[in-house]
Specification:
alpha/beta
Length: 204
């Protein structure tokens, strides 16, 4: 889990009390988009023994996650990117903030991306109890697309870290929040640009 510092978040000890506190069990399906070194997924697995899928495009980080979960069949790790369609992008490597939306540098990696349906179908995650999204700017495009389709009906909880990227990030975040509400999601808690959590009240 990336170390996050925010006054209210720190005061409420969000890294301990919130991000890995959901009604999950060993039958739950959990997806982490943007696994980094796998710290959050490790906490989820140790606490609930859920079925886990971690999507992390950076090879060095992916290898760390694979080593940590080696031999655990319930945890799948994909060295791929997530997007709204199948495509290849150039990702500027900057540690835990690697993104295709950073200023281009010589330190770039080519990443193959797939839509969420590819991962869900491949791993038989037809229903997802918890989805964590921390993907350095791609969350805007992803959620804007998902709101227009029927894919969100398959997610019970969505935990999102929005990023201050682009000139209209706040307007886009507000519109995404409205879109989630229109689909029956309710915000459980919100620490802007740290993490926020949404529950699908139409989940069945």
């Amino acid at each position: 889990m990336r170390t996050i510092h925010n006054e209210r978040w720190d005061k409420d000890n969000g890294n301990f009390h919130l991000v890995a506190n959901y009604p999950l069990d060993e039958n739950s399906n959990v997806i982490e988009l943007g696994g980094f070194r796998g710290d959050w997924s490790r906490r989820i697995y140790d606490k609930y023994k859920s079925n886990l899928l971690v999507v992390e495009p950076i090879e060095d980080f992916c290898k760390i996650i694979q080593r940590d979960f080696e031999g655990i069949e319930k945890v799948k790790v994909e060295q791929l990117g997530i997007s709204t369609e199948e495509k290849t992008v150039l990702l500027s490597f900057n540690g835990d903030a690697s993104s295709q939306y950073l200023e281009q540098t010589s330190n770039q990696v080519e990443v193959k991306c797939f839509p969420i349906e590819y991962f869900m179908n491949k791993h038989n995650f037809h229903k997802v109890d918890l989805m964590q999204i921390n993907i350095e700017g791609e969350e805007f495009y992803l959620l804007e697309n998902w709101i227009k389709t029927d894919i969100l009906k398959n997610f019970r909880y969505i935990q999102i870290q929005f990023h201050r990227l682009g000139s209209d990030y706040e307007e886009r975040r507000i519109e995404i929040q409205k879109g989630l509400q229109n689909l029956g999601f309710v915000c459980s808690w919100d620490y802007p640009y740290v993490f926020e959590s949404w529950e699908n009240k139409n989940w069945s």
